[in-house]
Design brief:
The chain has about 625 residues and is an alpha+beta fold. The chain has 23 helices and 15 strands. α11 crosses α12, α14 packs across α15 and α15 packs antiparallel against α16. It is globular.
């Protein structure tokens, strides 16, 4: 075995097997070494169509294994400029891979056993793609990714209308059972069910991203509907309807609209007007709640190109916008008359919907200016002179302001950065941000400037998105964690009941976040002792036989049997290896896999005992408590 270690720059060079039988994977790679301090090179290997590079810390050489560091490299070299910490060093393994016959050996240790890797690159990257573009592994997604290949799979996910959900009985039957949401618990259940069962995984990720970005709180919306007291059922229905309508809009615009459109729907949607008290924003008594969050949270970012004066001016622009019920033909016209309040909740109440409304007489008609003294200065003209149509005077103030905010370069920067943090890296480089901004500013896209599908495509197509070093670099939110457990176990859930209790304890309850900045997209913000304990309990409780029911259970045994894995005693290693592959992309150490095997082969007293189906299920629940399951 050749030798070259980094910091000392070491590389483990592996002996080439001289003779290969037909259909065997490529032999071991030879000639591994560095050309300079950054460029790793090796010799061509018979039968290899491409190569994979693994890197590990020499301090963990015998105990952990090397991680995938470069995937499907078509040439005989790989640039790896990272320098280890002082006193530390890296070691590298290179394997050859055949498109037909698979990946070759990572070589042998000096004492003879094969070198360990934390999953093979293909498996690690499969799970990485499924984790970042969706909510983790399931059978349909794995098969679809294998059939299409990574590029075509992601392209299909970016075109959700092309993915057939009509034949998805797991999804459709559950959505039918829930029915149109008439209480917030239904809306929460639908979100869980879609995340667990939808084939359009990226669509659900994106819909919930924008729902969280333009977050509103159910209770605040519900409180507005005291006009229906004491009809609490009707109050719940109306509040839920507003938030459900928001999410449907975000789901559509996320792939068929631009940011200017989604900004309007988010900032002056009926539920946001109620949540941030713009219903009380009138001339002479401006309320800055909505204007401040529209700039700080929804578009430009904290202190990023606007001033307190802009907050005040925007508050005046937003005066007069409130919510009322309008008859069905008028729901898209902010100037149409409202249904009289004395008819609301009576047998004579006309059919219609609660929507945003513009009150000319409560609008500040004076001139306003946004971004004063900057290249982006925008003057909103005085409409107090009575010229033009007095019944609509001031309505256009809002649209002119939203145009200016959407066009401000800080908005493109803030949103591009936030999307990169969500889908690629929590520390995006300036080059990554600039490349997404370039797509944002391309007005030739189908939806024009800020085309949300094309912006998302620019995010997903970052080279860093498929960088093996990014695999596992983000932490799952509690919602993502719970959904990934269900998906990885063929879980059964209606999204309600027991699951709702866990989401409450995990403090990730959709549509009930009291903070206007939404739930954190940064996984590390969710890590704490109680949160981790609840996550571990969730996996164990799901796999405990006492909890098995059609609405909260797993189908681990059929999943194993359908994939040719025997559940008869004596097959513990294969059972653990299957879930190591599916749940973790194979990225478990030998010791972690052995701990699961030992757990499976013993009883509650630690005595060696032939396992049964219940013990298999408990073992997989135990495995979801491994730290790696937090990672995506």
């Amino acid at each position: 075995m050749g030798n070259s270690i980094r910091a000392s720059l070491p590389v483990l060079s592996l002996l080439l097997v001289a003779s290969l039988s037909y259909g065997a994977p490529p032999g071991e790679v030879t000639g591994i070494g560095f050309s300079g301090k950054d460029l790793l090179q090796w010799s061509a290997t018979t039968g290899a169509d491409d190569y994979n590079v693994y890197r590990g810390s020499t301090s963990q050489l015998a105990s952990v294994g090397a991680r995938c560091h470069g995937d499907e490299i078509a040439v005989l070299q790989f640039n790896t400029p990272a320098i280890p910490e002082p006193g530390a060093s890296f070691y590298y393994l290179v394997t050859g891979e055949s498109d037909v016959d698979g990946e070759g050996s990572a070589g042998s240790q000096s004492a003879g056993p094969a070198r360990e890797t934390l999953g093979r690159c293909d498996t690690v990257m499969r799970n990485h793609v499924l984790n970042r573009s969706g909510y983790g592994w399931d059978e349909w997604s794995e098969d679809r990714l294998a059939t299409l290949g990574t590029a075509a799979y992601l392209a299909e996910q970016l075109d959700p209308a092309s993915i057939d959900e009509g034949s998805n009985t797991e999804l459709q039957s559950r959505l039918t059972d829930i029915g149109p949401p008439d209480r917030v618990e239904d809306l929460q259940a639908i979100a869980i069910v879609r995340a667990v069962y939808a084939r359009r995984q990226l669509e659900q990720q994106t819909a919930l991203f924008y729902s969280n970005h333009f977050t509103t709180q159910y209770q605040e919306v519900y409180n507005f509907f005291n006009v229906y007291n004491p009809d609490l059922v009707r109050r719940r229905l109306e509040a839920t309807t507003l938030q459900a309508r928001d999410e449907d809009t975000f789901r559509d615009l996320g792939f068929n609209g631009n940011f200017r459109e989604i900004l309007e729907e988010g900032v002056v949607g009926a539920s946001m007007i109620l949540y941030l008290d713009n219903d009380n924003n009138v001339v002479g008594r401006p309320n800055e709640n909505l204007s401040r969050e529209a700039l700080e949270l929804h578009s430009m970012g904290v202190d990023n190109g606007y001033t307190q004066l802009d907050v005040e001016e925007l508050a005046e622009i937003l005066t007069g916008w409130n919510v009322c019920k309008k008859e069905t033909p008028d729901i898209d016209d902010p100037l149409a008359p409202c249904i009289p309040r004395n008819l609301i909740g009576t047998p004579g109440e006309p059919a219609g919907a609660w929507v945003r409304n513009f009150r000319v007489d409560q609008h500040d008609c004076s001139q306003k200016t946004l971004f004063l003294g900057t290249p982006y200065e925008t003057v909103i003209p005085d409409t107090c002179d009575g010229l033009g149509d007095p019944t609509s005077a001031g309505e256009d103030d809002l649209y002119l302001a939203l145009d200016a905010i959407a066009d401000h370069p800080s908005t493109a920067e803030f949103m591009s950065t936030k999307l990169l943090k969500r889908f690629v890296s929590e520390s995006p480089t300036q080059a990554m941000i600039d490349s997404v901004i370039a797509e944002w500013n391309d007005d030739t896209h189908p939806a024009g400037r800020g085309d949300l599908r094309e912006v998302l495509r620019a995010v997903i197509e970052q080279s860093a998105f498929l960088d093996p070093d990014q695999a596992g670099s983000k932490i799952r939110t509690p919602f993502e964690h719970v959904v990934a457990v269900f998906r990885g176990m063929r879980g059964q859930t209606n999204g309600a009941n027991t699951v709702a209790g866990y989401m409450n304890r995990l403090q990730h309850v959709l549509y009930r976040n009291a903070s206007p900045d939404g739930y954190s997209e940064l996984g590390g913000d969710w890590i704490g002792t109680t949160n981790l304990l609840e996550r571990q309990n969730f996996g164990l409780d799901l796999t405990e036989s006492i909890f098995i029911n059609p609405d909260f259970s797993e189908r681990i045994i059929p999943l194993l049997n359908d994939n040719g894995i025997s559940t008869a005693p004596g097959n513990a290693e294969a059972i653990v290896e299957f879930f190591s592959d599916k749940l973790f992309g194979g990225a478990l150490t030998v010791m972690e896999k052995q701990a699961a095997v030992d757990y499976l082969n013993t009883d509650e007293l630690g005595q060696t005992t032939p396992y049964n189906d219940a013990r298999i299920r408990e073992t997989i629940g135990f495995m979801t408590g491994y730290p790696q399951f937090l990672e995506q």
